[in-house]
Amino acid sequence: MIDHLLRRGDPGHGISLLYSARNADEFAFIEELRGHEQRGRLDVHQTVTREESTSWAGFRGRIGRSHFERVVRDRASTLCFVCGPRVMVNESVLTLAALGVPLGAMRTEAWAVPRG
C-alpha cells in the first residue's frame, strides 16, 4: 500500500510506518523502506518483540499507545492502516480510538497466527 501511494506521487502529507517483527532479521523490504525514508518520503519506526541479541539498538516490545502517540499528529484527519495478527489489530484499533482517531479512518487486515 505504501509503495502504491508513493508511486502515485507526493501524497501531500506525512506517511509513518510502525513496523514490528519478532526479530531484527524478519523485517521484509526494510532496505526499500529505508530508501524511501532517506528521500524524506516515509518515516519508519521499527520495534522487535522477541529479539534477544544485544546488537539491536532500536525499540523493543509490542506496538502500543506510546508508539502511536509519536506518529499520529492530527488525529481527526489521520488515516490508519493496521495489519497483523488479530490480537494486535484489535488492540491497535482500541488504542487509536482512545487517542481520538475516528473508527471510520481505520482500515484493518487481521490474520490468525498458526500455533506450533
Structure description:
It is a single chain. This protein has helices spanning 2-7, 30-38, 65-71, 86-98, and strands at 16-21, 43-48, 59-60, 80-85, 106-111. The strands form two sheets. Strands 1-2-3 form a three-stranded parallel beta sheet, sandwiched between helices. It has four helices and five strands. It folds into two domains: 1-61, Rossmann fold (3-Layer(aba) Sandwich), CATH 3.40.50; 75-116, no CATH class. The chain is of the alpha/beta class and 116 residues long. The model has no long low-confidence stretch (mean pLDDT 89). Strand 1, helix 2 and strand 2 (43-48) form a beta-alpha-beta unit.
- Give the CATH superfamily of the largest domain: Nucleotide-binding domain of ferredoxin-NADP reductase (FNR) module
User: Given the structure, what is the number of helices?
Assistant: 4
What count of domains describes the coordinates? 2
Order of helices and strands: HEHEEHEHE
Strand order, main sheet: write it out: 1-2-3
Give the biggest beta sheet: 3 strands, parallel
Could you name the CATH topology of the largest domain? Rossmann fold
- Could you tell me the mean pLDDT? 89
CATH class of the largest domain: Alpha Beta
Low-confidence stretches: none
- The coarse silhouette is globular
